[in-house]
Design brief:
Layout (H helix, E strand, L loop, with lengths): L2 H15 L9 H13 L4 H14 L4 E8 L2 E11 L6 E7 L9 H20 L6 E7 L7 H8 L8 E8 L4 E5 L9 H13 L2 E5 L7 H6 L4 E7 L4 H8 L9 H5 L15 H17 L4
Length: about 290
């Protein structure tokens, strides 16, 4: 990278860090309220209704898109935030279904609520160079069926980037799934790193990450990343569990998800506003770049 390009990137990141975010009110309180609204519903359709009610309240049109995958039927929820006419697409999503036990608050009403907050921010202050859609996936817990059906649909537009949220419930670290093919400090990662430092929030990107909906995109050769908000000390033990190991101390995530403990009572919204601000700044820097 030339000195000129480095200086331009530094100036871009600095301008975004010093800009006022699209939200300036109680993000964490609103996030928690939305998690509670979704996780109070045990039926998937009712959880979708809660999401739809929030989108409607924000003035965002949405629809249900039925699909069949691997012999099972479900409904993804799709909302278009608009943007420049023929601009490339930024797709942001989270799964809204849950397993039979628990309330699915951490897994994954927390991620749903994060997407809803970003939808509000990106509607209030649209991106300059990308159209934005948000999607809430059904049947992730059955094998990523909603996102797999989306990617497999003939004629589906390939996004410039898919951004996934799964388990965004507590802690001091923004954990990012960064594909191995993008292991360098891309502009998005650099912006997230700078913004995390500004917010005094931990940031850990890497290609080792639990399986969730970003995989459907990566397997199709489509660019994707994923975010979680957890304790920094949980990440290595989480990866150990998914690798078949037994860490000395079971991380909180693994104690909560897919269990009766998965309720809103386990959540901690203390750093949610900081984490979402970091993601918003990162996406705005990515959008502003002349090429990705």
């Amino acid at each position: 990278m030339t000195s000129l390009r480095r200086c331009a990137r530094h100036a871009l990141l600095l301008s975004l860090l010093t800009s006022v975010p699209a939200w300036a009110d109680d993000v964490s309180g609103r996030w928690l309220q939305q998690v509670e609204a979704v996780s109070a519903r045990s039926d998937t359709a009712a959880r979708g209704d809660a999401i739809g009610q929030r989108l409607t309240a924000l003035g965002i049109e949405w629809k249900r898109e039925a699909f069949e995958q691997d012999g099972q039927s479900g409904q993804n929820l799709v909302a278009d935030l608009g943007g420049p006419g023929k601009a490339p697409l930024l797709l942001i999503g989270a799964h809204y279904d849950k397993v039979d036990v628990g309330h699915g608050a951490t897994d994954n009403a927390s991620g749903v609520a994060a997407v809803l907050e970003l939808a509000q921010a990106l509607k209030a202050k649209p991106l300059a160079h990308h159209r934005v859609q948000v999607v809430f996936w059904d049947l992730e817990e059955k094998g990523l069926l909603g996102s797999r059906a989306w990617v497999a649909t003939p004629g589906r537009e390939k996004p410039a980037l898919y951004v996934n949220f799964d388990v965004f419930g507590w802690g001091d670290t923004l954990w990012m799934m960064q594909p191995a093919s993008d292991s360098g400090d891309s502009l998005l990662v650099a912006a997230l790193r700078a913004s995390s430092k500004h917010e005094k929030l931990g940031f850990q990107p890497g290609d080792k990450y639990p399986p969730t909906d970003h995989l459907a995109f990566l397997k199709a050769g489509w660019p994707a990343v994923s975010f979680s908000l957890v304790g920094g000390d949980e990440i290595d033990p989480i990866l150990a569990v998914f690798g078949g190991g037994k860490p000395a101390q079971m991380p909180k995530v693994m104690q909560v998800i897919h269990s009766a403990r998965d309720t809103a009572a386990e959540l901690d919204s203390g750093r949610v506003d900081d984490a979402l601000r970091v993601v918003e700044h990162g996406l705005r820097a990515w959008d502003a770049a002349p090429a990705h």
